[in-house]
Amino acid sequence: MKTFFQIFIFLILSEASFGQDFMPMIQKVWQNNQQLAAKDFEIKSAISSLEEAKSMYGPSVLFNAQYTLSTGGRTILFPIGDLLNPVYNSLNKLNNNNAFGQLENQTINFLPNNFNDIKFKIQQPIYMPDIAINRSLKEGQLRLKELELKSYKRLLSKEIMTAYFNKEQAIALTKILESSGILLSEALRTTQSMITNGIALPSSRLRIEAQQAQLSAQIIEANSQVTNANLYIHFLTGDTVNQEISLPELPTLDLETSQVREEILQLQEANSIMALAVKKEDQFYKPSFGVALDVGSQAFNFGFSPYAFLGLNFEINLYDHKRHQKRRDAAISNMQANSANQKQVADQFALKSKMSENNLIAAIDQAHTFASRISSAERNYKDVFTKYKAGTAGYLEIIDAENLLTSTKVQYALAKFNAWSKWSEYLYDTAKLDIP
Predict the structure, then answer these.
(1) Does pTM surpass 0.85?
(2) At what angle do helices 262-282 and 129-196 cross, to 10 degrees?
(3) Per-residue CA distances from 144 to 13, 54, 68, 307 (Å)
(4) Are residues 172 and 221 in the same domain?
(5) Mean pLDDT, to the nearest integer, of 234-260?
């Protein structure tokens, strides 16, 4: 039979082959998390906004129909009779007839009455710098939403791994306590036999039974921790089936190149968006140019009189009392402040990554120290138990030996899963986990 130390060494040597993928469990968490689903809808909204910005390069067609009735309002006198009647009179005299009748002066109302206007309006931008800036802005906002989503996914990944390690720790503690219960039962049988043979006093049995009762209480608490850990994992994954992952005894330090944390990328993207404000003010004197075409009909009394109207729109800023320059200066200051903040955040993450690496190394090294300690505690218990059966060791010695073995195993379980917890923090702080 392999000793604990041999098994320990075997598992340590096989750490390099650790390839268990947490992704199936992590993906269930992603699928089950409602806040993540909300962020996904925000991304879809940002995509739609980007598509809208792209569509602004194309033409727009508007149909408009108006019918107006009016009375009163401003009028203008059009003296057509005073202008033409003298001429008509002269022509009638020359021709000796009344071919040209008399005209009345006209009063024209500014408000059209019984008038219909039906048209299609087509507009096509030719050169408008603000459209390109708006598109770049929407692209930047979409990238920010995607980075926010990835950042939250990374946090959830760490959360489920930590929860899983807590569950495994509780299970390991339960098994250790149950194993100790077996040892105490064996010691109790031996003690009962010794009492029967007059070798030991009944008080020794009572002391071991008290130790068993205390151990039973600890097992109940450990089982409760397992139940609660499972409940939390089920809450995160939405899956009521217990998922088992085959872990090596201890994690290894992943020395592959780390990725850039999403928080830093978000600051970089924010800087790019701020640069668009500067670019917008730099284009203050650039013109805007577009084409508009109206095709329709204007007539009175529901008549039809078609027309077409083509317009060229040209607009250029000439002067705004340096307001655009002040906006540009403010945008540059915001960029500089964001850049300084970005460097500070990058340095903080670099420090945190190095500290997480050191914590992981220390946790692994601490767990390694338990191999010889557990082996020594096992040998000590076997020796004391042998002496106890022979009557050369007291019941307090067997209880102390059992307590030493149990506490050493418990301390190792805590150290082991502390190393795994530090490993999940290390993956999170260094952004080594690939997030799609």
Answers:
(1) no
(2) 170
(3) 43, 18, 50, 49
(4) yes
(5) 81
